[in-house]
Amino acid sequence: MNAVVILSIVLLSYADAANHSCKDIYLANPSSANGTYTINNRKNQSYKVYCEFHNNFGYTYVSKNTGVEVNINDLFTTKAHVKVRHVKANGVQAETIMENISNYPKQPVGIFYNQHTGYAASVNAANLAPYLYLGFLPISLANHVNPQGYRASSQDFRFTNCDRNPNSYFVFYFNPNHKAPTGYVNHCCESSLMHSWITVAQNLPSAYNMPDEFYFDYELHFGGCGGYAFIHHHNDINGAALGVRFEQTDPCQSGPCQNGGSCYSEDETDFFCECPVGYEGDSCQLKGNTGNGGIIG
Ligand SMILES: *[C@@H]1O[C@H](CO)[C@@H](O)[C@H](O)[C@H]1NC(C)=O
Ligand SMILES: *[C@@H]1O[C@H](CO)[C@@H](O)[C@H](O)[C@H]1NC(C)=O
Ligand SMILES: *[C@@H]1O[C@H](CO)[C@@H](O)[C@H](O)[C@H]1NC(C)=O
Ligand SMILES: CC(=O)N[C@H]1CO[C@H](CO)[C@@H](O)[C@@H]1O
């Protein structure tokens, strides 16, 4: 009896809640198509995202037309890698998986909305804000004279930081007032590192194209001698987009409830077993009379 009451409370509160992420949209309907969806931030203000769904995981891209705060931590479940897409001047869209170089196998990337805690500030942060920040090495690791860079499509692209300059980032600017960039933009400091993520990206079939509103002005900065580029340096590119990854694993998939118990998932790792009469325990593994399961985390 207890189990049934708990379950209906969970379902009711779920049905009332707004979608806060592509993951919520997937949970509401696991056969959702790729495309543009409206989700709500924590102040219940709505904005648009592009959801790319795969089996049990996906990527979320934020619209650059977003005028409300983005609660970006709601949009991803892993910082091990991101996807970066770009759109070429001829309309072709391409993508690459980006992560830290293999010198730093345990180092997650930094993913922020309008801040860069622990990472270097971007040149146009104040001018073209808000922005999405993709940090590779935090200042504490970037301010050394050692190999740095990024990994794209499973290849390391390295440079040696020549002067401990702690910049190691990609930034995607919403730039709502279409302002011109400032700083190094007209004269500094192209390098092959500024292009490798573009040249190794895989072209997408046009059926997978995202609308233009998901492609941002961007700035890249590495080192100490790694390079600096703004989108205006790349005549053949019309914009880039940051895709953050969420996992949608169902803890009930492995059949954790024993002796004919029914499994209900609560989130990615927690599930609840409803036990048949005569069994009890978190996985209905014990003989007993209550018919109650437990919540496992
Ligand atoms: C959440 O997304 C699903 C799938 O698109 C949709 O059917 C549902 O109406 C959305 N919920 C709310 C509260 O907007
Ligand atoms: C949040 O906004 C949605 C529409 O986007 C609305 O249906 C819902 O009632 C709102 N929820 C709260 C708690 O205000
Ligand atoms: C969504 O798009 C990706 C490519 O970006 C594709 O691999 C995937 O199969 C698509 N998902 C659906 C549900 O069509
Ligand atoms: C957190 C984490 O492990 N991040 C990635 C950093 O980059 C390496 C490859 O160079 C990946 O293996 C890691 O998954």
Notes on the protein architecture:
The chain has about 300 residues and is mainly beta. The chain folds into two domains: about 65-245, no CATH class; about 260-295, no CATH class. Helices cover about 10% and strands about 35% of the residues. It is built from four helices and 19 strands. The strands form four sheets. Strands 1, 2, 3, 4, 5, 8, 9, 11 and 14 form a nine-stranded antiparallel sheet that branches. A five-stranded antiparallel sheet has the order 6-7-10-12-13, with no helix packed on it. It starts with a helix and ends with a strand. The relative contact order is 0.16. It binds 2-acetamido-2-deoxy-beta-D-glucopyranose (NAG) (4 copies). One 2-acetamido-2-deoxy-beta-D-glucopyranose binds near residues 18 and 32. The site of one 2-acetamido-2-deoxy-beta-D-glucopyranose has 4 residues, from loops.
Provide tags for this entry.
single chain; 297 residues; mainly beta; 2 domains; nine-stranded antiparallel sheet; five-stranded antiparallel sheet; 4 helices; 19 strands; 11% helix; binds 2-acetamido-2-deoxy-beta-D-glucopyranose
